[in-house]
Amino acid sequence: MAKPNRLFLLISALWFVFAFAQNTSAQNNLARRVSVNVQQQRLADALDELSRQGNFYFSYNSNIIPEDSLVTVVAQNQSIRDVLDEILPGYFEYKEAPRYVILRPAPYQLLLKTDKIQEKKHGYIISGHVVDAQTGAQISGASIYEKRLLLSTLSDADGFFKIKAKTQDHSLALTVTKELYQEITVNILSSVTITPGNNNAFGYDPEESRQVERTGFGRFLISSRQRIQSLNLSGFFANSPFQASLTPGLSSHGMLSSQVVNKFSLNVLGGYTAGVNGVEWAGAFNINKKNAQFMQAAGLFNMVGGNMRGVQFAGLSNTVLHDVNGVQAAGLFNRSKGTHTGVQAAGLINTASKTVNGAQIAGISNYSKSQLQGIQVAGLLNIVNQDIKGWQIAGLGNISRKNLQGTQIGGLANISHGEIHGIQIAGLYNYAKKLRGLQVGIVNKADSSAGISLGILNFIKGGYRKVSLSANELTNTNISLKTGNATLYSIISAGVHVAPATSKRYNLEFGLGHDFLLSKRFALSTELTSVNMYFRNQDKFYDFIRTKAKLQVNCGKKISVFAGPTFSLFTNSNKLTPAEFSQNLPPKNYPTISFSSDVKGWLGWETGISLF
Fold first, then answer.
1. Keyword annotations for this protein (predicted)?
2. DSSP characters for 460-507?
3. Are 567 and 547 in contact (CB under 8 A)?
4. 6 phi and psi, to 5 degrees?
């Protein structure tokens, strides 16, 4: 009998070592040793120092932890658990999850009383009560669950519970948890070691995991019993290959569905799960407490409380409360409360609360609360609250609240409240706080400019707003408005030749100019204009192009005089007869160049005075 005994002892020792190693690994964060010297510092700062040395994160409710209270602790090579015992009140409980230590107040103790245990052919039916260990008061809304079998229930108003377990094992471990109570585990029949192998691989934060329950859809579609269950089981998550639901709560995982991450999830109307790590389909809606990856599709909407990686399709809307890495496509709305890397495509509106790296395409509007690195295309309006590196294209207008490195194209207007290194093109109006690129529009405005504004009216702070009175060889009374800056300014001019009625003529002139600043007093102006002239004696319009080179002399801060030669080129674009073509232009007694029978040019002059 010695050999079997030695074999038994060897197996028992190996089992003990394995169990101890598993337990040590599970408690790794709290067992890590640290050295700290904290003298009258905020509790929150002391926790930050412990998490930094331990390479993990604390998760707790900031409304319960006294973050601003001052603590003093000196520890040399002590475990994190021991340090926490010194700086926290004695009623706190510490629970571990991958890369997290969860701090939860648990000033009270629970007691589970089993009233009846029925052994069936393929399992057990267990009933009993949950009570307060100190007062004996019955506890309602406590969660009773079996981790390995993914079974759970809630105690009723009298603290009563009943749970059915189908299993071939000869033991069960029922865990009881309730907010503000210390969690307990009761072994039914033979005791077993429960390992934390069901924790969700996506990571853990109990406060974030309940965010979907606080949304409008969550409050409406998730029952109070499910919210209580979620609160009680905030530290437990499991993985499963498949689940099916009719509605939230009516699931193949029962009341535990909100704690299970599935590889395939099928929701006839709608479902509420911890997350999806594969594919999820729903006739109406999908709600995930935590993360989702690969694909979600719903007839109405998808909602993810954590991160989304993959593709979401919805008839109405997609909502992700953290980051998106992939595609959101919806008939009406897409919303990402974190960074969006990929594409948002919606019939109406796309929004992102942080940076967009990719594309937003919407029938009405796109909005990024942070930066845009990519492109926005909207039927009406695009808005970015921070910098843009890319494109904005909208039927109505685009708004950038910070700097732009790229292009804005708006049917009506473009507005940038920062510095532009790029292009603005608008049907009517462009505005830039600092222009270091190009504006093209009917009206352009910039608070400062080292670039080019191309339009009919260009209002540059510190630039040109000149009114000129002038005369030339065709009209002796002209008034012009020049706006822009020395690099490029626009010209609008109207004139009349005051003469006998038979030879009276009128002109409208539009063009661009550039000033070569020779000194503080002298400048050389070069201009190119298009002239439309009406001759009353012939009742006909003539179109021609005119170039000008004028020497400008500043006589004061707001007055200058100018004079110089002009050259005009006249083509028979109006299909005039030879007699009509030569009747009024070129003017008589001016040097003329005939390029062909339909193209003539002449040398002229212009002189005048500029104000403002």
1. Signal
2. ETTSEEEEEEEEESS-SEEEEEEEE-SS-EEEEEEEEE-S-GGG-EEE
3. yes
4. -65, -40
Report which secondary-structure segment, H or E, holds 80: helix 80-87
pLDDT in tens, 294-351: 999 999 999 998 899 999 999 999 999 999 999 999 999 999 999 999 999 999 999 9
Q: What is the CA radius of gyration of the chain?
A: 40
Residue 194 has a pLDDT of: 33
As a whole number of angstroms, the distance between CA 128 and CA 138 comes to 11
Location of structure tokens 């981790």: 147
Separation in Å, CA 81 to CA 92, 477, 586: 11, 93, 99
pLDDT more than 70, % of the chain: 86
CA end-to-end span of the chain, whole Å?
117
Q: Cα 103 vs. chain centroid, distance in angstroms? A: 31
Cβ atoms of residues 330 and 315 within 8 Å: yes
DSSP bridge partners of 608: 470, 562
Distance of CA 130 to the CA centre of its chain: 46
Burial readout 11-20 (b: 16 or more C-beta within 10 A, e: otherwise): eeeeeeeeee
3 state DSSP class of 31: helix
Check: CB of residue 256 under 8 Å from CB of residue 271. Answer: no
Cα separation, 381 vs 241, in Å, equals 43
Instruction: Specify the pLDDT at position 43.
Output: 86
The CA distance from 308 to 301, in Å, is 14
- CA angle, 308 then 312 then 317, to 5°: 105
- Look at residues 268, 264, 266, 284 and name the one whose alpha carbon lies nearest to residue 276: 264
Q: Cβ distance 587 to 550 under 8 Å?
A: no
Distance CA 236, CA 255 (A): 13
Tell me the sheet residues that pair with 486.
none
Q: Which pLDDT tens digit goes with each residue over 515-545?
A: 999 998 999 999 999 999 888 877 778 889 9
What was the pLDDT predicted at 14? 43
75 close to 36: Cβ distance less than 8 angstroms: yes
Residue type for position 252: S
Q: Tell me the CA distances in angstroms from 213 to 200, 220, 225, 304, 527, one per residue in order.
A: 19, 9, 12, 11, 67
Give the Cα separation of 518 and 587 in Å (integer). Answer: 33
